[in-house]
Amino acid sequence: MRKRILLLTTGGTIASGDSGRGLAPVLSSEDFLQYVKEFESVCELIPFAVCSLDSTNIDIEHWLLLAQLIRENYDQYDAFLICHGTDTLAYTAAALSYLIQNSPKPIVLTGAQKSILSEITDARKNLHDSIRCALDVRSRDVRVVFDGKIIAGTRAKKTSTFSYNAFSSINFPVIGKIQNDMVLYYIEEHVQPEAVKFYDRMDRNVFLLKLAPGMSPAIIPHILRDYDCIIMEGFGVGGLPDCLRETFLTEMKRYQPHEKLLVMTTQVTYEGSSMDTYVVGRAAKDELPFLETYDMTLEAVYTKLMWILGLHIADRKEMERLFYRKVNYDITMV
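Above: the chain's sequence. Below: its structure in token form.
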């Protein structure tokens, strides 16, 4: 029996053509079927256009819509394939990892650095590799397939702007590869005892503050007033300048512990945070209720916090427990 795959298209470079003012999505979801005819004997791909956008314009509402469409069609399909622009693909993959947890069916995201219409392109290979991954009986949960690599949805990051090798798996090995049209898994997929769990809310009240030398602390009261969670991209392993720490100490006294979440990550891509290493990090962690991201990617941290805030939990300890609970390989250092 042929497997059924729901092909969800969102636009992106893979579907783009020259608009005269630069690349813009032009292909319909049905247009993709002409590039996958070799799979007709083993699977049925049913196309559905979610939107037709440059992924720069993909937002939290699109993440929720994708999760809703997968939930509504979950019993009718064996796998789900999402064609997506590369610029925010990692955010979408991370968001879906929290909105759809413990899925025994694969949810695969892919895209391309060149349009599928181009004579020389990575699009057809990425699309074909993604179908092979989606068809494999060992595949499950949210995965990014790109340039032959299978990456956990919470570990992908775009690390090259033009090269075909656009995505890296950050602080975690690739799950597997597609080589010579074969799916090779390096990490065995352990089936979770829990049933698939869907969520339908995320809270965008998360602010990302990238620290820079000489930054004025004057902005901190305004951010705390308008946002429920602040992620700080600290220096090195997670350092916070003394003047900023002192301002946070003063301002946080205005709020209950569960009202404002402070989260420390690092501006460095690889190897994660360690706030206990230096005085500037340890002082911040000892004096303020910081959650530390350790080896999580920024994309995972950002979307995981949106998911947690969307649960409307008033218990600070429960929020911390959820933040440090491993979902789709997102954290290993705790």
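The longest strand covers residues 43-53.
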